[in-house]
C-alpha cells in the first residue's frame, strides 16, 4: 500500500502552499514573449504564503534554469522583467521557490513559449 503512495509524496510540499502562478504573458507593447523581451509573471497568494519569493524560469526539456527575479514581495501580485537571452522554446515554466531554500518549490506556472533563437540540444 505504501509503495502506491510514494509517487505522490513529492507533491506534498507543493500542495502545502496556496500560491498559484499564472501563465506568463508578454510585457507591455509585445505580442509574444521573446528571448530578449519582457514577460509579466503574476500570481495569487494566500495569507499563509511567504512574504518574499524567488522566481526562476525552467526549461521542461533541457532542465536549464534562469533567475527571473529574486526577493520578490508576494503582496505585489506580479512582476515584469526582461528575459536574459533565454532561447526560443515552447517548454518553459516559472517556478516560485523560497528565497533562502531554492530547493523548496512553492508553485509552478503552466508551460509557456519563448519566441526567438532555439536552444540546440547536443
Write the topology of this structure.
Layout: H1 2-9, H2 12-16, E1 20-21, E2 25-26, E3 38-44, E4 52-59, E5 65-73, E6 78-82, E7 89-98, E8 105-108, E9 112-114
Antiparallel strand pairs: 1-3, 2-3, 3-6, 4-5, 4-7, 7-8, 7-9
Could you characterize what this model shows?
The protein has 122 residues and is mostly beta strands. Helices cover 11% and strands 41% of the residues. The chain is built from 2 helices and 9 strands; from the N terminus they run ααβββββββββ. The strands form 2 sheets. Strands 4, 5, 7, 8 and 9 form a 5-stranded antiparallel sheet that branches. Strands 1, 2, 3 and 6 form a 4-stranded antiparallel sheet that branches. Strand 4 (52-59) and strand 5 (65-73) form a beta hairpin. It is globular.
What percentage of amino acids are in beta strands? 35-45%
Specify Rg, calculated over alpha carbons.
15 Å
Number of helices: 2
User: What do the pLDDT scores average to?
Assistant: 85
Order of helices and strands: HHEEEEEEEEE
What's the overall geometry? globular
Uncertain segments: 5-9, 11-15
Major beta sheet summary: 5 strands, antiparallel
- Indicate the structural class: mainly beta
| Share of helix, binned | 10-25%
Cα end-to-end separation:
41 Å
| DSSP strand count | 9
Q: What oligomeric state do these chains adopt?
A: single chain
Amino acid at each position: 500500500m505504501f509503495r502506491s503512495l510514494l509517487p505522490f509524496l513529492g507533491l506534498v510540499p507543493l500542495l502545502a502552499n496556496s500560491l498559484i502562478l499564472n501563465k506568463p504573458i508578454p510585457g507591455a507593447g509585445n505580442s509574444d514573449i521573446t528571448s530578449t523581451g519582457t514577460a509579466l509573471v503574476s500570481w495569487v497568494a494566500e495569507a499563509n504564503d511567504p512574504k518574499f519569493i524567488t522566481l526562476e524560469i525552467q526549461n521542461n526539456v533541457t532542465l536549464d534554469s534562469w533567475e527571473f527575479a529574486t526577493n520578490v514581495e508576494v503582496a505585489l501580485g506580479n512582476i515584469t522583467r526582461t528575459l536574459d537571452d533565454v532561447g526560443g522554446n515552447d517548454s518553459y515554466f516559472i517556478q516560485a521557490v523560497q528565497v533562502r531554500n531554492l530547493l523548496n518549490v512553492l508553485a509552478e506556472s503552466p508551460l509557456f513559449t519563448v519566441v526567438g533563437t532555439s536552444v540546440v540540444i547536443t
